[in-house]
């Protein structure tokens, strides 16, 4: 009797196991679909009260898609201070009655970025010290992870600011490359800094890079009292304040190594100031260019 019960029990368990094996498996639940996630970055210069009686600011916008799906139709919209207009060419279309300017950025792939946007704004005239606010919003019809990073705002202060430019030679507007023998030899790269702004620069900081294989052969010279630190890789010099429309020059004597006929090389430099500058990415860099050529008989 006991043996028959054990046999029947075993048979039952086998049938249940077989049924479980043959039973269809429930489909796995799908995860959420990937979404776009647009993020905007906004920066601005101060507002320059320029010599033409205008108040001009430069706004820069970056848009990144930090999501896992594309945003096929990204759009950016600026809300400007009343009375502001766009200066120069732009993809934006403006309704000046509402002070809103909008433009298409096109598709932004997952993990990608839209083309950075740089907009010159002519703000309404106001006294120095006036503060204006500019905000921008990026949007898409695609579903996003969050929209909390779609809007940014910046503040800009009216004033008269320095605006430095650097030239690879004298302030002539024309700068040609200099010929040098393939044997190498002495060169005299000259750089001129000019303040194109409407306010004084607190100081002028000029850094000249020394290319590999080149040697600085003497103290830098110029038309003002430069204070310089010289190393094997760069020459860093500081001069006093620079008034609007004024220039200051610096020459760094070097020896160039031998090179191949028709090769070219450059000596790069950059000018900055420790004070506020209206634009620090517009003409602050220059290169003195050289060309190895056969010496003329």
From TrEMBL:
Key words, A-Z: Signal
InterPro entries in the cross-refs: Ig-like_fold
Gene Ontology biological process: carbohydrate metabolic process
Signal sequence, start to end: 1-30
Protein name: Uncharacterized protein
Species this protein is from: Micromonospora auratinigra
